[in-house]
Design brief:
By secondary structure, the protein is an alpha+beta fold. About 40% of the residues lie in helices and about 30% in strands. The protein has three helices and eight strands. The strands form two sheets. Strands 1-8-3-6 form a four-stranded antiparallel beta sheet, with no helix packed on it. A four-stranded antiparallel beta sheet has the order 2-7-4-5, with no helix packed on it. Helix 2 crosses helix 3. The radius of gyration is 31 Å and the shape is elongated.
Length: about 210
């Protein structure tokens, strides 16, 4: 591999939006994973459930409002299954696996393997571009890099927008704290002045001072 392509592949590995996770699902248990995604983002996933006779596992993908984006009931065990959806808004999405087991039956812990991809990594360039447009491999790779650069620019734009929002929030909070501090000091000074005059009148009424 040439020295020109090496930094490019390192960059691809650093910002790749691929998540692979393995966890155990107890009988009649529930495990959920959450992630915040931007709008118009393609999300794909692969999952596999280990064998467990008599146990049923369902999975559901929902957004923060409870809308179901993907669902499969009674997942066959021991085989890889796939799902995909496209986000409509900036939101937090939740993937849940639920185990169902009859009360009278003794269950066993199942192993769930989940691989999710979103953004550039979720696109199948060989199938979507190579076959449709008869592009050469180098052209497909250039298209991938073009999409990747656009994704990086958008990420930096979103980071800058968030930084501006956080700065505005900090400035507004600092101003409110300053005004509250001035108001508190005025209240304390007013209370102290009132106490001095009150005690002075009290001592004069008792003829302790002139």
């Amino acid at each position: 591999m040439s020295s020109f392509y090496y930094p490019i592949w390192v960059l691809l590995l650093v910002i790749a939006n691929v998540q692979s996770i393995m966890f155990h699902l107890e009988p009649n248990g529930r495990k959920c994973l959450k992630e915040e995604l931007q709008a118009n983002v393609l999300v794909t996933g692969e999952y596999k459930i280990s064998e467990a006779p008599g146990q049923r596992v369902d999975y559901t993908v929902t957004d923060s409002k409870g809308h179901v984006l993907a669902r499969k009931e009674d997942i066959p065990h021991g085989k890889e299954w796939k799902f995909s959806f496209v986000t409509e808004n900036v939101d937090t999405f939740e993937i849940c696996f639920v185990s169902n087991l009859p009360i009278h039956q003794q269950g066993m812990t199942q192993e769930v393997t989940l691989i999710t991809k979103h953004g550039i990594e979720a696109k199948n360039y060989e199938a979507m571009i190579g076959e449709a447009s008869n592009l050469k491999p180098i052209e497909v790779e250039l298209k991938r890099l073009e999409d990747l650069s656009e994704s990086i620019v958008l990420d930096f734009a979103r980071m800058r927008q968030r930084e501006e929002q956080m700065r505005d929030t900090n400035e507004a909070t600092n101003a409110r704290v300053l005004y509250f501090s001035i108001f508190s000091m005025c209240c304390l000074l007013g209370l102290a002045t009132w106490q001095v005059f009150y005690l002075r009148r009290f001592f004069r009424a008792k003829k302790l001072i002139e």
